[in-house]
Design goal:
The chain has about 260 residues and is an all-alpha fold. The protein has 13 helices and no strands. Helix 3 packs across helix 6 (about 110-120), helix 6 packs across helix 7 and helix 9 (about 180-190) runs parallel beside helix 13 (about 240-255).
């Protein structure tokens, strides 16, 4: 498995570099995705070890982290956007890329199917039906690892000035206000539909609502430790309903962080 991992890392590194260009605006997004891939892979390994996975399963988690966003690069090449709603679901596109790679067949059929399942579900609003506990836990793991790093990616763009410097790949109104339907989701403590993002304020609130979709206490503790939640809250607008949503969120975070994790696979 270690030799296969080396082969996969070498291929992914070369693949990402093949999208380098002299266009600085494009390169801003490509660099973000390259760095994000590295962090998510690292988080996936750390979480797998925290959950006491076998060395084989830690390697599978590493593969999922490495390839979870492989579709992003072809997405931009084909559609000149990272917006799934305006192009193609990047996880589904990633599966098409992986299907073209002969070294994926060096995995057992069961492992390849598990990797493909977790990657397919990493960006969906919900994981959806699963055939067993093993599929569920791996899907939860890569979703957590991905979200943990997206909080880092978002951090520089939270201020009004920072929003203007954000990559221009996802169109949205420049307003810092949050749409009323998103505030209702926040007050209720439920996930919002990111496809309905309309403002910078919406984007911040949707990321904050991800807290309710974090699966493992380890991940949420890492998010809290890095100050990501407080940072987003600091830059939320003062609108009716926001304070109630924040209070509900803080109560949830305190309880979740006190929990213990068990993979059960």
């Amino acid at each position: 498995m270690q030799e296969l991992l080396k082969e996969m890392h070498a291929w992914m590194d070369a693949y990402m570099k093949s999208f380098h260009t002299g266009d600085e605006e494009v390169m801003q997004g490509i660099r973000i995705k390259e760095i994000h891939t590295g962090y998510v892979t690292t988080h996936a390994i750390a979480l797998a070890k925290h959950l006491r996975f076998s060395p084989h399963d830690v390697a599978l988690a590493e593969i999922m982290g490495l390839f979870h966003d492989v579709g992003r690069f072809r997405q931009y090449s084909l559609y000149k956007t990272f917006n799934d709603a305006e192009s193609e679901d990047h996880a589904d596109l990633g599966l098409k890329v992986l299907a073209e790679l002969p070294f994926m067949k060096k995995l057992s059929p069961e492992d390849e199917e598990l990797v493909r399942f977790a990657i397919a579900r990493h960006n969906k609003k919900e994981i959806g039906p699963v055939q067993d506990r093993r599929h569920l836990v791996f899907a939860q793991l890569i979703r957590d690892a991905d979200k943990l790093d997206i909080y880092r990616v978002l951090s520089p763009y939270l201020t009004p000035d920072g929003a203007d410097k954000a990559p221009k790949f996802v169109a949205s109104d420049a307003s810092q206000l949050v749409s009323p339907d998103f505030i209702e989701d926040f007050k209720a403590g439920r996930q919002a539909d990111y496809r309905k993002l309309r403002t910078h304020g919406d984007r911040k609130l949707v990321r904050l609502l991800w807290v309710y979709d974090i699966n493992f206490s380890w991940t949420l503790r890492e998010i809290v430790k890095r100050g990501y939640i407080d940072l987003i809250i600091r830059y939320l607008p003062e609108q009716p309903g926001i304070a109630a949503g924040v209070a509900r969120l803080r109560t949830y975070v305190e309880k979740k962080c006190a929990g213990q994790d068990s993979a059960g696979i």
